[in-house]
Write a structure and sequence with these properties.
Elements (H helix, E strand, L loop, with lengths): L4 E6 L2 E6 H18 L6 H14 L3 E3 L14 H5 L3 E8 L2 E6 L4 E3 L5 E3 L4 E2 L5 E5 L2 E2 L5 E2 L5 H8 L6 E5 L20 E3 L4 E4 L7 H8 L3 E4 L3
Parallel strand pairs: 3-4, 3-9, 9-12, 12-13, 14-15
Antiparallel strand pairs: 1-2, 4-5, 5-8, 6-7, 10-11, 13-14
Length: about 220
């Protein structure tokens, strides 16, 4: 992806804003947050995610190996292992493949941990848990500008039933900055507030809110 200005619309006013500027500001805030606060601050988010998984009951889950400033979803591996098949992304060229989550790990590009096992899996994913740097008003993902997740999901011959974005800080922006190729999520979980895309989950919203706890907000995406 390129660093360029994107026309955004907020409160009926057009203005130029750099997507890369928002990305870098958010990453700096997350890194500062993790230096000040203990990882236990993330546990509420991890608990909400676990409750959502139990509610949705996916068979195959795509997890991720977190960077230091991302939620440590790896903590859930033991709780999930008995009822779910867990896969993680594996970088291949400019995209991702899926491999089974199992130790040992190697440190690869961008300091990401990946299983040593390189046997790619072709199972259909029911739920994907994806890290984000921010989310815009269309529930579209702002990532690290590498495009790995965008290319991976666009290559799938199906639409994953539940795409769950997670982030240690609430970085939702109430204007559009995404592009057509950006991955769109169904849920966005943070340590303070959770978001769900309006439309698909309207009937289940009350159940999600009561079963998962926390502060939930519905997002009306275009």
């Amino acid at each position: 992806m390129h660093d360029y200005g994107i026309i955004c619309e907020k409160y009926g006013i057009n203005f130029m804003i750099s997507k890369n500027f928002i990305r870098q500001q958010n990453i700096n805030k997350m890194k500062k947050y993790t230096k000040i606060f203990a990882p236990s601050r993330h546990y509420k988010l991890i608990s909400t995610l676990y409750k959502l998984i139990n509610l949705k009951k996916p068979k195959n889950i795509l997890l991720f190996m977190p960077l230091p400033y991302e939620p440590n979803v790896y903590r859930l591996r033991r709780k999930l292992a008995n009822k779910h098949s867990i896969f993680v992304p594996f970088m291949v060229g400019l995209s991702l493949k899926m491999v089974k989550l199992r130790q040992p790990f190697n440190i690869k590009k961008f300091n990401v941990k990946e299983p040593v096992n390189q046997q790619f899996a072709n199972f259909k994913i029911d739920m994907a848990i994806v890290p984000v740097v921010g989310v815009d008003k269309d529930m579209a993902r702002i990532g690290h500008a590498k495009g790995y997740y965008d290319r991976f999901f666009s290559s799938l011959p199906y639409r994953v039933s539940d795409v769950v974005f997670v982030q240690i800080l609430d970085m939702f922006i109430d204007f559009k900055i995404s592009q057509p190729h950006d991955l769109v999520g169904d849920y966005y979980l943070t340590t303070k507030k959770n978001y769900v895309k309006r439309g698909k989950n309207d009937r289940d919203f009350s159940r999600i809110r009561s079963r998962c706890g926390g502060h939930w907000c519905r997002v009306c995406s275009s």
